[in-house]
Amino acid sequence: MAYKETIPVSNHRIGENPEADLALLLADCRANLPKPDENLISKAFHFCVKVHEKDRRASGEPYYVHLLEVARIVAREIPLDDVSVAAALLHDIVEDHANYSIKDIRAEFGQTIATIVDGVTKITDISKSKEIKQAESYLKLVLSLVKDVRVILLKVADRLHNMRTLDHLLPHQQARIARETLDIFAPFAHRFGLGNIKWELEDLAFKFLNREQYDSIKKQLNSSRKDRELYIQKFISPILQKLQSYSLKVEISGRPKHIHSIYHKMISREKTIEDIYDLFAIRIILDTEDKNDCFIVYGLVSEIYTPVPERFKDYISIPKKNGYQSLHTTVIGEDGKRVEVQIRTKNMHEIAEKGVAAHFKYKAETLNDESAIFGNKDLEEWANNMRDVLENSGHEAIPELLESFKITLYQNEIHIFTPKGELRNLPLGAMPLDFAFAIHSQVGNHCIGAKVNGKIVPLDYKLENGDSVEILTSKNQNPNRDWERLVITHKAKAHIRRYLNEEKRKRQQEGKEIWEKKVKKNDLHINEDGLEKVLQSLKFENKGEFYYALGIGTANIEGVFDLIREKMKPGAPINEVATAEISFESILSTSRGNTTGVYVIGNAQNTAALLYNYAKCCNPVPGDQIVGVVTTGSGIKVHRKACKNIKELQNKIHARLMELEWSASSQGDFIAAIRITGDDRSGMLNEITNAVVSYNNTSIRSVNIHAMESVFEGIVTVFVKNTEHLSRIFDKLKKIKGIKSIERFEG
Ligand code: MN
Predict the structure, then answer these.
(1) pLDDT at 479 > cutoff 70
(2) Of 357, 392, 411, which residue sits at a domain end?
């Protein structure tokens, strides 16, 4: 281990004498940390011993032993700073003791320590409630939740100690924790460059997951140790001699072989254990700041032993993502055995073993600007900066530096769990629909709502980091124009647009076929230009819009057809027809009432509207009393008679209003808004949504809820066939406990 071993203060067993344990911790801190605040650490230690007085670990030891050991890992193996050591001692208090809160920690130890403890608690909560499988997504989630890198390093230290003492748990607990360690925490340690801890976590996890293989590899490693050590001794002695003449200070070590990595190599390279053992490995660490010395040493080694060219890797010129730098080469030693040689400077070695933590040991002028370190978009960039800082810095640490250590990575992303515990990254501000389309276009297309953390939410609900989202779908549901405005991700927008365009194209095609059949059957001759012009005079923007209107049944084909034929009579040239402004009356007089939607009453011929649509202010539904407003550009707007806007209009331009009726054949989905008030109790929203859906699988378009004190008011917009359908939904809603009023809502 690279940390400085401290001489035990007394020969006591840890856990028997708290004061002696504290002395041990303080000695660790003195040996490894810059000017640690011993009062702070002592205070935190006494506090945690007191709070956890009655708690025991699975091993039977007093609970504070765990906290002490985590604090010692933080002091020696990662080494961070005194604040982190204090936070380590306090990290399980809020989690385990209901009568202590972050507030208490803040009151006793200040904001920084409270924030770190809070962060650790948050991370623990997430990994407790979900089964997490993707390390990288989890890392991003954690980075977006916590702003202080010490939270993550402390969590790694916590896991390391739990793994070291995993023997005391039950086998199924061991397996779960070991699996999680391998999947999440080892990659985590790797990402932060904590090389040693990564290896240890992997080996420990491997031990519990695959005991047989672990024992067998370990046994063979032990039995061949003597031979290997001898071989290495012989191998390095000529290298050492050469290096002496160059006055380069070096440290050469036979690299420890990690059991898990041996196993991994056996599997991935399909080799036996013997083959893997044959790969000897040494590491040369140079006491120099000059990376060129590494290349000089590489030259010396190559003079003595023949290198295998394809095995040379220069991670000095092109470092790994986590900041790792080193030269790797493989040479042929005595008896033709291959020996891996790694060459690096002390600084590089420090980063390789301690990663981000190595950073804390150095002072850097450039660090006054925190953005120089953590204003970056990616860890990779951060690692580059860290290297720069290390290369251009002195060796005196300043703990205040840590105060400004903030992580601003991934703050614009949120991370959402699927019901299966997988993570999806979405931009800040994303809604359930965005999430639905992120899963699959079909899930998005049929989305009627979502359950977030078990509760039904409206489609325009803003998702929060760490939410668990389950998408509710109905095969009757399809995207509409409103969705396009609602979603914020490109993916969702693109899918919605594609669907709407495809739908429109289909309806146009249907309309076109209807029209062509009609024209053919009646032997009408009109050229494209002529048709286009007639249609324009009827306020259709182009033929496409006309076909579309025919396709969805809002244009009366008989009306248009008769009008065109009339104008085509001899003596009525096309041009004249086209340019003539066709009055609304003339449309009415040539239309007949067999359309599929609404028709006009009060006209002798019972004529139908040529082009109509439904007013958004009152959303009429078949069965409602309706009235039409003649508009230029979009034909007739159909309102409910009870609509406020109509009441205003009636006094002004009576002539533009016309009595309408629903045609018996009118069908399709109509939007209706329902206003509901009642008691704000948990589960209310869920029951409302279920009640709506329970009648004929009614589609919900949106839900908006405002809760004030104990009362809530909600507007639920649904798709219904007619007023009968709507009143059935009312009946269902009335049965819900705590509902005060239900009424049709006008915007
Ligand atoms: Mn813990």
Answers:
(1) yes
(2) 357
